[in-house]
């Protein structure tokens, strides 16, 4: 399965032009399941209605909320969602706060080739998501195997007990 096609990516950016640039660039890089939001509240509402994004790429300063507010609300409902902040805020305290709350990376908009760095970060986050999905599959297989073995063992014990009783 091509991870780029299976990832659900949200872009939360209140600057319409910048939002569109990021979304279009991601689509050109074959990330086909990209949704655009112009406000944090709009994004949160979508998650509260049952959609769970794999990755949220967002600005720190939004018209209605800050990035940490959006992160907290989404993580409360979708704990495995990964965040990449794409922002012009160079405040080191804000960057540390973001990392403390679980932001995977903090990319400054005005520093170098942000799209190249964004793709590098998406590739790293994608690997984490792939591993998480594989781990979930392995755990399901282990649980099913344990359940089947339990049924076989219990069946064997019951057959032994009823065999002894019927002979006895």
Write the layout of secondary structure elements.
Layout lengths: L2 H4 L2 E4 L3 H13 L5 E4 L2 H9 L6 E4 L8 H11 L4 E6 L4 H9 L2 E6 L5 H54 L1
Parallel strand pairs: 1-2, 1-3, 3-4, 4-5
Describe the protein in words.
- The N and C termini lie far apart (59 Å).
- This protein is of the alpha/beta class and 168 residues long.
- It has a 5-stranded parallel beta sheet with strand order 2-1-3-4-5.
- The mean pLDDT is 88.
- It is elongated.
- It has one domain (3-138): Rossmann fold.
- The protein is built from 6 helices and 5 strands; from the N terminus they run αβαβαβαβαβα.
- The longest helix has 54 residues, at 114-167.
Tags for this model:
168 residues; alpha/beta; Rossmann fold; 6 helices; 60% helix; elongated
């Amino acid at each position: 399965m091509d991870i780029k096609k299976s990832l659900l990516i949200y872009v939360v950016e209140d600057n319409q032009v910048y939002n569109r640039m990021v979304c279009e660039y991601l689509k050109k890089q074959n990330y086909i399941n990209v949704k655009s939001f112009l406000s944090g509240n709009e994004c949160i509402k979508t998650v509260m209605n049952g959609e769970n994004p794999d990755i949220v790429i967002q600005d720190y300063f939004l018209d209605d909320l800050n990035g940490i507010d959006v992160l907290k609300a989404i993580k409360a409902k979708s704990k495995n969602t990964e965040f990449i902040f794409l922002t012009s805020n160079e405040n080191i305290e804000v960057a540390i706060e973001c990392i403390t709350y679980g932001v995977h990376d903090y990319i400054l908009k005005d520093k170098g080739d942000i799209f190249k760095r964004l793709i590098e970060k998406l590739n790293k986050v994608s690997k984490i998501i792939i591993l998480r999905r594989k781990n979930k599959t392995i755990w399901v297989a282990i649980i099913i195997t344990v359940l089947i073995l339990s049924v076989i063992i219990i069946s064997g014990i019951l057959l032994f007990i009823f065999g002894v009783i019927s002979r006895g």
